Amino acid sequence: MTNGAATTLAYEPNAYRIQKVASAVINNYLLEADNLEALYDENDQLKASYLRGVVILRGQILT
């Protein structure tokens, strides 16, 4: 369901999304190769960061 607000998406040359603007909220995506590393707002403030690969949790290695 939408409220009638437009959503604008921006993509880099390899067709990966790098920005989304919806209801005046701007999200900028930081990519490293094919992987999403972080999400920033319009002021370049970190909103979320993502881990991938090997993660160590309570002495156990998870992959």
Architecture overview:
The protein is mostly beta strands and 63 residues long. The protein has one domain. 0% of the residues lie in helices and 56% in strands. The protein is built from no helices and seven strands. The strands form two sheets. A five-stranded antiparallel β-sheet has the order 1-2-3-4-5, with no helix packed on it. Strands 6-7 form a two-stranded antiparallel sheet. It starts with 6 loop residues before the first strand and ends with a strand.
How is this structure best summarized?
With 63 residues, the chain is mostly beta strands. Helices cover 0% and strands 56% of the residues.
* Overall radius of gyration: 15 Å
What is the N-to-C order of secondary-structure elements (H for helix, E for strand)? Answer: EEEEEEE
Order of strands across the main sheet: 1-2-3-4-5
Query: How does the helix and strand content classify structurally?
Result: mainly beta
* Approximate strand percentage: over 45%
Alpha plus pi helix count = 0
Described by strand count, sense and barrel closure, the largest sheet is:
5 strands, antiparallel
The share of residues in helices is under 10%
Provide the residue-averaged pLDDT. Answer: 84
Distance from N terminus to C terminus (CA atoms, Å) equals 37 Å
Topology at a glance:
Elements: E1 7-11, E2 17-22, E3 25-32, E4 35-40, E5 46-49, E6 55-57, E7 60-62
Antiparallel strand pairs: 1-2, 2-3, 3-4, 4-5, 6-7
